[in-house]
């Protein structure tokens, strides 16, 4: 009959006990402590603790005004199609859509900007994409905007939240975890230059 295995017979790396390279890896080479922070400061503190790449603001973005030279109308189906193509028969078409009117509601206040950053990647905006920016629109929470801070431009999501004391906090959200959100200091002034209304992206 085999003798039952005792705990002392188990190898150090079998079950239980301390194992080499086990446990949470320390980000900082020192002891950590638990602390209580105001709820309104949680995001800022997390951003400070997570190392981020340099900001992507620029002083002279390549903004181009809109010029309508031609009108381009595309046939529009009466109903949306889940997959495939609508029938080419005239009975299934409902006039046409002019892309100028569809994409731009205010030509005199709309500009095109070529994006040079990945800070809004998770919002579908990548390097080389062109975005339409309308200066006539009133900004709302959640809008993607071209913002001006300290004479530098950046594309971010505009965020406004009400704090427990009744005041409002405005900040700019990056849609890529590798980039920092922007929290304004008391001496900084934020100007919303325009609201992003469209992403111009070719699939091929």
From TrEMBL:
Residues 17-31 have a biased composition (Basic and acidic residues). Residues 1-14 have a biased composition (Polar residues). One of its GO terms (molecular function) is hydrolase activity. The keyword Phosphoprotein does not apply. Keywords: Autocatalytic cleavage, DNA damage, DNA repair, Hydrolase, SOS response. Residues 78-196 form the Peptidase S24/S26A/S26B/S26C domain. Residues 1-31 are annotated as: Disordered. It comes from the Bacteria. GO terms for biological process: DNA repair; regulation of DNA-templated transcription; SOS response. Belongs to the peptidase S24 family. This is Peptidase S24/S26A/S26B/S26C domain-containing protein.
């Amino acid at each position: 009959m085999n003798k039952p295995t005792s705990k002392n017979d188990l190898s150090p790396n079998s079950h239980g006990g301390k194992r080499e390279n086990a446990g949470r890896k320390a980000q900082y080479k020192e002891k950590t402590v638990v602390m209580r922070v105001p709820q309104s400061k949680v995001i800022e503190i997390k951003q400070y603790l997570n190392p981020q790449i340099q900001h992507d603001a620029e002083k002279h973005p390549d903004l181009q005004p809109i010029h309508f030279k031609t009108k381009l109308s595309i046939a529009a189906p009466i109903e949306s199609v889940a997959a495939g193509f609508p029938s080419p028969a005239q009975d299934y078409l409902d006039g046409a859509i002019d892309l100028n009117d569809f994409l731009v509601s205010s030509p005199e206040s709309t500009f095109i900007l070529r994006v040079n950053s990945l800070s809004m990647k998770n919002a579908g905006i990548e390097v080389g994409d062109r975005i339409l920016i309308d200066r006539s629109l009133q900004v709302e929470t959640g809008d993607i905007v071209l913002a001006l801070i300290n004479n530098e431009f950046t594309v971010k999501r505009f965020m406004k939240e009400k704090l427990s004391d009744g005041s409002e906090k405005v900040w700019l959200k990056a849609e890529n975890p590798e980039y920092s959100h922007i929290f304004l200091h008391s001496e900084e002034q934020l100007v919303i230059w325009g609201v992003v209304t469209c992403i111009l992206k070719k699939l091929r």
